[in-house]
Design goal:
By secondary structure, this protein is an alpha/beta fold. It folds into 3 domains: 217 residues, Alpha-Beta Barrel (TIM Barrel); 96 residues, no CATH class; 220 residues, Alpha-Beta Barrel (TIM Barrel). It is built from 24 helices and 28 strands. The strands form 4 sheets. The chain has an 8-stranded parallel β-barrel with strand order 1-2-3-4-5-6-7-9, surrounded by 6 helices. Helix 5 links the parallel strand 5 and strand 6. It is globular.
Length: 755
């Protein structure tokens, strides 16, 4: 292997980060105690982070900071303050989910390198082109992709000067990252805010196939797939585990380091993954990488599998044999722990200690020698002189108190002042404050590796622009259908009518092209996930229909629409929660409007600043999506005769069932033709309060009239529903009661609780 591939390790706390460094990680990703998607990890203070950057860089290891959550409007000021600190911290990159953060970084903090988080669900060429355009130097590809898809996307990314990283070890989500709302819906803790409650690991009432944990996947391990990943051209191999401890991190990173070194030196692989199986795991699968989505990916137990594996490998049967195996496993873990403790013994996050020795006499420059007592390798000490000369003065301004006051700012996240010395400094001396400040700035410059510190940025306050005018002055109604049988609804309303396109298409099929050409009033609605040939077929729809307007939940399709000059609206699954996200979409992709996320509440919505000539939309009625998966939810629930998922499953299967958790709450599993398996809440989202609260903000209120994710949705008179929703928007209170009767099982809890 001639080229170097980065080994990227998780760091939930300082000890885990030390373990990753000791084990040979090339880079570490970690989070602060705010703005990151692993709130259950211990996380770090800013002082910790500065110590970690120093320690990592001493060991030729980079540090990437996770700011990979959606950002709320009221958090922007604190976020900007943090960025002003990070820009001088030495951090090597920031991992980002929120589209607004891309805008802030690109405009105001261009020296900070940007990596696109797995939460952005990157799985097609258009998304890579989009992320590259808004500032990403690297993208984390979706875990659901197979090796051929990874190879094709990596080749495309490299052509656009974007690097790719791939998860190769650790926990697997069954849902597409960034498209899972199960925790948000169930307990009010959003995965898009780092508070996932892991509903996929929950116990459910036993299913028809006899499973209690029907959503629980084995852990990912590509340990023996390294040659294929090298061939695919990926730049970084990423290990999951920021809520895991130092022992786990050391063992896994050490195992992968040895595998990479072995393959680099000899082209051969280590055959033994025993150490990986001695720390927490749910057994291993590489089925996403292999594109072989079978029942074997699941395991009906979310707890540690290491002892079970050891017992099975040994063939132990008697209680004495099993006890011995468990004891040996415990001892092996202890040995790994001893090895870790020995290797991290000398690793310290302590701040560098600075000593200042001032010297000089009248008619000489003021000199200061700065000594770093536990300093960095490139500099142990240095001396700086003032440009102005010292002078005698009866009103001396150079006493100990003055120096200590002027230099006290060096007691900060990076350094601790150990001492001041004035033994070689004359008495009754004076120096202009301007010259003293310049001297201090020279010290700062040299301590910063001879790079000028970036001064704090003042980000201007955004202007809220007025709504796009319409004839009535009130918000319009828009609606979504997904079946040609619903076309007569066009006659029942003058509302905008969106047509939901599937997530999978037959190759070269013109069905949807013909439908849209025959019904030009229909506005194409593109889904969030479009992989491989399905993305290419979706692009053909744009190219052959050339619609005047579309809604896209996928930035890859949005990018193509932008290239073609097609007006487009950002759909609700792009998770827009702040003004800068809207600016990114408008300025980078000429977006003309966006749905605001249904995860945020009234107070979090109302201060969002509208860009000029930009529409804001909000869904007031829809089935509540909890998660979407490339895996099959039916294999572990009602069962399926097919041993693995085939291409035809997407196009033909239309099964439906329910699962019920041990608290007695049921959820609908729905698979439409041409769609991915999805799970929906049993309640429909119905938010009529938003009409009263936010009609001055929104241009359109949207209702979903598809039968997708039916849940509790009874067969209804859709024409009547449209009539009542239009009446409510006009201010008819009687229509509100009629709607509540027609939709008896509903909630707007997300609107109440927010993020």
């Amino acid at each position: 292997m001639s080229r170097k591939i980065e080994l990227l390790a998780p760091g939930g706390d300082a000890e885990a980060i030390k373990a990753a460094i000791a084990a040979g990680a090339d880079a570490i990703y970690c989070g602060l105690d705010l703005f990151n998607a692993r709130n259950r990890a211990a996380n770090l203070s800013f002082d910790d982070l500065c110590g970690i950057v120093r320690l990592a860089h001493q060991h030729d290891c980079e540090v990437f900071l996770t700011l990979n959550v959606v950002i709320l409007e009221q958090e922007l000021n604190n976020l900007i303050k943090l960025l002003n600190k990070l820009v001088n911290s030495g951090i090597d990159a920031i991992i980002v989910q929120d589209l607004g953060l891309f805008n802030l970084l690109k405009k105001f903090f261009p020296s900070l390198d940007i990596h696109a988080s797995t939460q952005l669900t990157t799985h097609n060429e258009g998304q890579i082109a989009f992320l590259g355009k808004i500032g990403a130097s690297r993208v984390n590809l979706s875990r659901e992709l197979n090796l051929e898809e990874i190879k094709n996307l990596t080749q495309f990314a490299h052509q656009h000067d974007v690097l790719t990283e791939v998860f190769v070890h650790g926990s697997l989500c069954i849902a597409f990252s960034g498209q899972c709302y199960s925790s948000s819906v169930s307990v009010g803790n959003s995965g898009n805010r780092g508070r996932c409650s892991q509903a996929c690991r929950d116990e459910y009432e036993i299913t028809e196939t006899g499973n209690k944990f029907p959503l629980n996947l084995k852990d990912n391990s590509a340990y023996f797939d390294l040659p294929e990943l090298v061939d695919a051209g990926v730049d970084s191999l990423k290990i999951e585990g920021r809520i895991k401890g130092a022992h786990y991190v050391y063992t896994v990173v050490d195992s992968w380091r040895k595998q990479l070194n072995k393959f680099s030196e000899s082209g051969q692989l280590l055959k033994d993954d025993a150490n990986l199986r001695k720390v927490f795991n749910r057994d291993f699968t590489n089925s996403f990488l292999k594109g072989n989505l079978t029942k074997s990916m699941f395991i009906d137990n979310p707890r540690d599998h290491s002892a079970t594996h050891a017992i099975a490998e040994s063939g132990a049967e008697s209680s004495i044999q099993i006890k011995t195996i468990r004891y040996n496993l415990h001892e092996d873990r202890n040995k790994l722990g001893d090895e870790l403790r020995d290797k991290v013994k000398g690793l310290s996050l302590a701040k560098q200690e600075l000593s200042f020795d001032f010297s000089g006499q009248a008619d000489q420059p003021l000199s200061v020698t700065v000594t770093l007592s536990n300093g960095i390798s490139s500099i142990d000490s240095f001396t700086v002189q003032s440009t102005a000369l010292l002078s005698h003065s009866t009103h001396s301004n150079l006493d100990a108190a003055t120096f200590e006051k002027r230099f006290k700012s060096f007691n900060n996240a990076l350094y601790r002042i150990d001492s001041f010395s004035f033994d070689q400094l004359g008495s009754a001396l004076s120096l202009p404050f301007k010259a003293l400040t310049a001297l201090k700035n020279s010290v700062v410059f040299l301590l910063n590796d001879s790079v000028e510190p970036v001064p704090p940025v003042e980000v201007p306050r955004l202007i809220t622009h007025p709504k796009v005018e319409n004839s009535s002055g009130r918000p319009k109604l828009s609606l979504l259908i997904a079946d040609e049988k619903e076309l007569p609804l066009c006659k029942a309303t003058d509302a905008d009518i969106y047509f939901k396109l599937p997530e999978s298409f037959k190759k070269d099929c013109t069905r949807y092209i013909d439908l849209l050409l025959k019904n030009p009033r229909l506005i194409p609605w593109f889904p969030a996930v479009l992989i491989g040939k399905d993305y290419l077929e979706a692009v053909k729809i744009l190219q052959q229909v050339k619609p005047k307007r579309i809604v896209s939940n996928n930035t890859g399709i949005a990018y193509k629409a932008f290239e073609m000059g097609i007006d487009w609206i950002a759909g609700p699954f792009l998770n827009t929660t702040n003004s800068y996200a809207l600016l990114t979409l408008k300025e980078e992709l000429n977006c003309s409007g966006a749905f605001i996320s249904n995860e945020i509440n009234r107070m979090q919505i109302k201060n969002i600043a509208r860009p000029e000539n930009f529409k804001l939309l909000y869904s007031i009625y829809h089935p509540i999506l909890m998660m979407t998966s490339r895996q099959c939810f039916f294999q572990q629930t009602v069962g399926c005769k097919k041993p693995s998922i085939e291409d035809s499953c997407m196009l033909k299967c239309e099964k439906a069932t329910t699962i019920t958790n041990i608290k007695g709450v049921s959820f609908s599993i729905d698979k439409q033709k041409g769609g991915y398996p999805s799970i929906y809440n049993n309640e429909q989202f119905l938010n009529l309060e938003a009409i009263n609260d936010l009609s001055d903000l929104f241009d359109e209120f949207f209702i979903d009239l598809t039968n997708i994710g039916a849940g509790s949705k009874a067969e209804e008179d859709k024409s009547q529903l449209i009539h009542y929703f239009e009446a409510v928007i006009r201010g008819d209170h009687d229509a509100t009661e009629q709607l509540k009767q027609m939709i008896p099982v509903s909630t707007n809890a997300q609107y109440q609780q927010g993020l």
